[in-house]
Amino acid sequence: MNITELRYLVAIKKWGSVSAAAKQLYAAQPNISKALKNLEGEYGLRIFERSSTGMIPTEQGRRFIEQAARVLEEVDRLTEDAHHARERCAELRVMIPHATYASYAAVDFLKEAAGADQLRIHIREGGSMEALDFVLRRGYHLALLRYAAEDDDHYIHYCARRGLKMEPVMEFEYRLLTNRDGPLAKHEVKDLSELNRYMEIMHDDFQLPGEDGGDGVRWHVNDSRRIHVYERCSQFSILQQLLSAYMWASPMPQRALDQFHLVLKKCPAQRQVMRDVLVYPDHGALRSEEQAFIDLLHREAALTVK
């Protein structure tokens, strides 16, 4: 016995015949006939009498159908309660890079989800290889990858082999982020070696892709003077206080630059093209929380690069 067989049984009684039940349920008539036969065989009783006017329940059949209807009512109530519980609980686990617009999208999502009775939100920052691990093995719903455009084929094949869907969000060249009052704010860097006398703030998430990872970089890294910082607000606070510090950053919302008294400059000497690509398991329709975050992410990206 299963729930579908019970639904077929109640439908036969309601509509008077197997063919009428099949029509109302948009089901194949042989499947309904088989379900009735299975139930009668499993419980050793005759549920219906066949007549020229239709299917008439026997006395045992009538009691059996009444019990089946009560079971279906409980199942439907359980389903409805679970649906309402999902509506009251906002649940999302997402990995993002050190990208200010992505953080703003996360805040926008939290504002919309704040009215839920329960919140189960995990927002984690990290590099692309770590993000893939969290989606593939640690139950995260979404990950925003950041990688060099020349590595596109690697990530496409990697994600395809593991059943991950890819959705482009932004393409950009790294820009120089520094204090508005600092020496780099008005200086055009024509050769990257000019930066060696300044202090570089680094995310430390520059691992190159590969089955075993990598530790090289293709864009400029200041080998002589660098500071590794893993939290965005700390990075911005350092840039606020150290006029000679800088970091490479993606496009940022103007309100973030204004808040931390920073300037984001295009640098002709830096031509590394980067891509931000959203990945998630290709399991069909997205959950409402996942789609909401994706929509907000695209909105913040569009506002940032306009």
TrEMBL record:
Residues 1-58 form the HTH lysR-type domain. The keyword Ligase does not apply. GO terms for molecular function: DNA-binding transcription factor activity; transcription cis-regulatory region binding. Keywords: Coiled coil, DNA-binding, Transcription, Transcription regulation. Residues 68-95 form a coiled coil. InterPro entries: LysR_HTH_N, LysR_subst-bd, WH-like_DNA-bd_sf, WH_DNA-bd_sf. Signal peptide: none annotated. SUPFAM superfamilies: Periplasmic binding protein-like II, Winged helix' DNA-binding domain. Belongs to the LysR transcriptional regulatory family. This is HTH-type transcriptional regulator TdfR. It comes from Faecalibacterium prausnitzii.
